[in-house]
Protein: Kynureninase
Organism: Tabrizicola oligotrophica
Amino acid sequence: MTDFAQTRALFHLPEGMVYLDGNSLGPLPKAAVERVARTVRDEWGDMLITGWNKAGWMDKPMNVGNRIARLIGAEKDSVAMGDTLSIKVYQALASALEMNRPRKVVLSDSGNFPSDLYMAQGLCKTLGEGYELRVVAPEEVLDAIDDTVAVTMITEVDYRTGRKHDMAAITARAHAKGALTIWDLAHSAGALPVELAKAGADFACGCSYKYLNSGPGGPAFIYVAPRHQERARPALSGWQGHDAPFAFDLDYRPARGAERMRVGTPPILQLAALEASLDIWDQVDMAALRTRSLQLTDLFITGVEATCPSLTLATPRDHALRGSQVSFRHPEGYAIMQALISKGVIGDFRAPDIIRFGFTPLYTSDADVTKAVDILAEIMANSLWDIPEFKTRKKVT
Amino acid sequence: MTDFAQTRALFHLPEGMVYLDGNSLGPLPKAAVERVARTVRDEWGDMLITGWNKAGWMDKPMNVGNRIARLIGAEKDSVAMGDTLSIKVYQALASALEMNRPRKVVLSDSGNFPSDLYMAQGLCKTLGEGYELRVVAPEEVLDAIDDTVAVTMITEVDYRTGRKHDMAAITARAHAKGALTIWDLAHSAGALPVELAKAGADFACGCSYKYLNSGPGGPAFIYVAPRHQERARPALSGWQGHDAPFAFDLDYRPARGAERMRVGTPPILQLAALEASLDIWDQVDMAALRTRSLQLTDLFITGVEATCPSLTLATPRDHALRGSQVSFRHPEGYAIMQALISKGVIGDFRAPDIIRFGFTPLYTSDADVTKAVDILAEIMANSLWDIPEFKTRKKVT
């Protein structure tokens, strides 16, 4: 059984701040400070080029991938790290579309993170005639899977509302209709137990800087189901995904397995930070994490609904449909979030009217939740968000 | 005038090591230790999500690009950082091919780094019917540019031999024949003065972990000539290249200028290391760097040729055709390099028979060159490379 008071102590949480934005950028694992410093000083500094072998840099994308595999229910050696989530979405999409010719439709929903849609739009344009991204409402996804669909590209947990799709049901329906599936786990990996293999998912990808706490710009991951690994042609056929990168052949020949989805030189400093975080994750029981996550989100929903009647819950009440965040709608959402931030409660605003709060059992306490509810209630009761300084429009992330 | 004894003091160079592999992985700028630590501790740790604005993370890809622009003769705001070199090659290639329809031929040479060729092969396969990567010998490039060529994809300095192409001549010829140009500056950026704007280059890309000393897996850069920036469609259309990334529109609309070539979340820790290195580069006069580089490579060539008759020079003697490295051929090149490394002289082996040495004025001294020559001469005179421990085949980078 995971002791979440103990894991909380392993993170640096600034004094006086209630951080409910770990679904945007996870906080610093204390051990990452020394881990990154050691990589800079003792590995890069002292080993120089020999670090690729001596410090195991070359193998990190697959070794780290194997540690993430447990968190997302993936088979050994089926997860490769690198690049960014958008790039990994592109790779999965390009492979899947080619595997499922002559179909040409990518099905997604309007709750997907826009970058996934953009990458699909870009790829469809590159592929040309007939390729199409079809976007439906989240609740229409299941019915929209027909036998014209080549691949479904769905983010399991909605980045705005926290609504969770039924991965097993959508995957089963897709397969019944002859479609392949790509699951974006940006708001799932480290947020709740994911069972890729059990659900029969074909491809998946996700980022590591949210619930997995790897720091700003940490590398992404891609999952390729073992049954597809030898057929999936990497559209981004870089040398690190070559079967023999150091033979310097003039012709590309993909590596065996998911390693073929590596592209260029891996970001060793970012990977070091991620490894420090995974030292914590290695100890976490995912079922216990889910139980705790639902306690936290329930507590917040109950508290806010009891004190802030003008906020409308955007997150499903049904546990089966909820990720690890809670969102409310309000026309002045942007200003409300600015007021919250000024009082030390860090959440996120997502256009047009969503304020969202991430609940991350590794370091969110009941006291955090209570304090956040109290401050939000005070802001709403006194219309603090209605004063000019909180209305200034700024770029938010 | 740059004082290269002074810049040398700014790098961490392990005691007793002669490091001639800065063309593979540059050494650690001493200031990078604290710079990265500060980014981890004070920015990620204390600012958390607000670092995207407060610490300027969001703008780093273009701000850092502008500092590299001076080193490669690029216009302001025409260089974007991110991803890896292979990804940036793909982006340039996809845009250029689309801009130059209906032509379908990518011209490159067999001296190009294989990953560039692989990425082109992958893209041609994705684009389908008629798309072709045509690979000629390096010396045939100029004549091979005919009016079927859509784009030339040439690495200016050969990663094995150090032979330098004539960027201005090839670009002029390409334009005369209606082709666009992509220049890979992996072994040029920070190695010698590059004049992209003056040469009329269309696209360029490069990595930062070689001569630019950003550390293992540091981000790549892409250059788009200002005249193409509004027409170049990003094939990898990620949200960070969107005109309004935080509007979360469902449709992609490219940002103005080269910023559209950004894809996903930038790697902030790796960028911090690069910035520490650029603090040194900001002070370097590129003409002085070139003069010094040629002194160093001349000194090494003269020394080795006087003492090691069985080694065959693979690098051009003509200064105009030489980058900032020197390579020799020998059938036992791999074992010779192993012997050198065991004696503290770090160079690189490149299949099938090349030993290569990078000369990097920022920290390579005359004493380094002399010592390397002496040790190489001793190894060759005594056939030290002929003993079994140096013949063991291992993965080298």
